[in-house]
Amino acid sequence: MKAKVLKLLREINGQYISGEKISSELSCSRTMVWKYIKALREDGYVIEAVSNKGYKLVSISNHLSDHEIRSRLGNDHLFKEISYHEEVESTQNIAQKLINQGAGSGTVVIANEQTSGRGRLGRDWFSPKDKGIWMSLILKPEITLREAPQLTLLAAVAVTRAISSVCSISSEIKWPNDILVDGKKVCGILTEMQADPDRIKSVIIGIGINVNQTDFPSSIANIATSLAKARGEQVERSELIIQILNEFQWLYEAYLAKGFSFIKPLWEVNAISIGKKIVATTAQGRLTGIAEGINDEGVLILRDDNGKVHHIYSGDITIPKD
Amino acid sequence: MKAKVLKLLREINGQYISGEKISSELSCSRTMVWKYIKALREDGYVIEAVSNKGYKLVSISNHLSDHEIRSRLGNDHLFKEISYHEEVESTQNIAQKLINQGAGSGTVVIANEQTSGRGRLGRDWFSPKDKGIWMSLILKPEITLREAPQLTLLAAVAVTRAISSVCSISSEIKWPNDILVDGKKVCGILTEMQADPDRIKSVIIGIGINVNQTDFPSSIANIATSLAKARGEQVERSELIIQILNEFQWLYEAYLAKGFSFIKPLWEVNAISIGKKIVATTAQGRLTGIAEGINDEGVLILRDDNGKVHHIYSGDITIPKD
């Protein structure tokens, strides 16, 4: 109900809405409306109340919450369920538990803090309280095992586009799953799945974004940055989350209808590594050469110094400085 | 302890072993030895007791049990943990739960009955009480997402080899996961995994074998058979389980060391479909042609009537009757 009250306050777009209007729209008493307004104020929302005019939303809370996110998503959104948590070990683990309990496609797990955030290849992901976006998307697409890594690329496109529209800064994708601003990492994407050789049963796309950090631990200070550092001012996390979910929605629907060939050019236009000399570290060893692009499956194509073409399915790439 | 007593009885190989020997080997009292012998008899084992000679195992129980399986596995076997159940919905689901609880590579889930046994593509698998082998192997190999389907082929080789040595009947593999005797299905293999694009985290290989059924529901009577029907006599399930686990162990170790190229010829020698005209039904549609074989990845190669070569990653194949 807090989400519904918030949605009405937001929809009136800086104007006043009367308590009577809210109570009739939501079929609840004026006293209940007052209780929800009070609860929202306690959450950090600034809501003006003027006699004979009603309530006006002056500023939203910088605190993340499920009602904040829910109040901003359309009713027929791909992402229908928001599972919000103040502190979790890892949103990926929560998502896995929800799947085991029968959670459907379109569930989003969001946390204000992760105590054991995970990155690719078993690495840690630093996820401090109040500062970032730590979320996991649950999806159950009808795609094959080989197509699953394409969802990582799709998510990277959604995030770069959302960063551009919300923060007005440009970001670049480093194959397969990192998003950089000014050459430093602001976002990592971790796609995990349950599958059999015939089909994907569920996918969890973890998205970790450094949003409002001003400092980083010394171990990552040289390689990590935040959107706020790059932009020079704080970013409203819930706005960015909504924009990512909206971008993801249309890209995902186009992908399911038209295949990865629709996503490929959108990915390439934001990719930092294409056409450059790269070093790829894979399970099979180390390769150096020019990253020619990705193929129609999303696999990275590397041409080595002898002109031999290699397909990189997984691995780490680095772009050596000249 | 029952498993240890059983192991001693088995190792003496049809001879008598004294109660004193058992009690000293297992560091327990003679009274306890007697209690274990009594418990084993209640489980259906026929154990002769003769004064001044001791105990002799005359015949084993036809009832499956964890101590029966455990007493037959070597101490340094790949499969170290046996999780035995009288009745489960699905051994795959139990295996998934065990993984969530931290079960390690080499755990085997075995059930005497499955009430909701699962096959490929969401199909049911008929798994009646006392009659079959319904088991799931948990493994955590360091392989890539694309290599995972190879484990289905490896498991099929292990099962055909075990059937041959225990039952002295030959069986054939229909790509990718069915094992046929006299053209009818005796075994299905369902490989499920948790993975990210970089690596497999865990694999559950489900193996369902029709062992001692004499009748099948009318819906599958035309396409299913059992080893007992083909052989003309009952098969000891625990012996077949042990043989499958033993075959699996050496094939798996060779596979991890040498790759799929080691498994490929062993698979091909038992494959029914190679060189024959097949119909493949895939997510992309229906294809007819000659099955030329599998490639080094385990992917089925089909040459259609126009000579065009197709790679079949997943799907159903049928072998039309001439």
UniProtKB/TrEMBL annotation, chains A, B:
Reactions catalysed according to its record: biotin + L-lysyl-[protein] + ATP = N(6)-biotinyl-L-lysyl-[protein] + AMP + diphosphate + H(+)
Keyword Methyltransferase: no
Claim: Cell cycle is one of the keywords in the record: no
Single GO MF annotation: biotin--[biotin carboxyl-carrier protein] ligase activity
EC id: 6.3.4.15
UniProt xrefs under Pfam families: BPL_C (PF02237), BPL_LplA_LipB (PF03099), HTH_11 (PF08279)
Sections of the chain in a coiled coil: none
Residue ranges flagged as DNA-binding region: 19-38
Domain BPL/LPL catalytic positions: 66-256
Sites where the protein binds biotin: Q114, R118, G119, R120, K185
EC class: ligase
Family named by the database record: Belongs to the biotin--protein ligase family.
Role this protein plays: Acts both as a biotin--[acetyl-CoA-carboxylase] ligase and a repressor.
NCBIfam families assigned: birA_ligase
Protein name: Bifunctional ligase/repressor BirA
The species this protein was found in: Evansella alkalicola
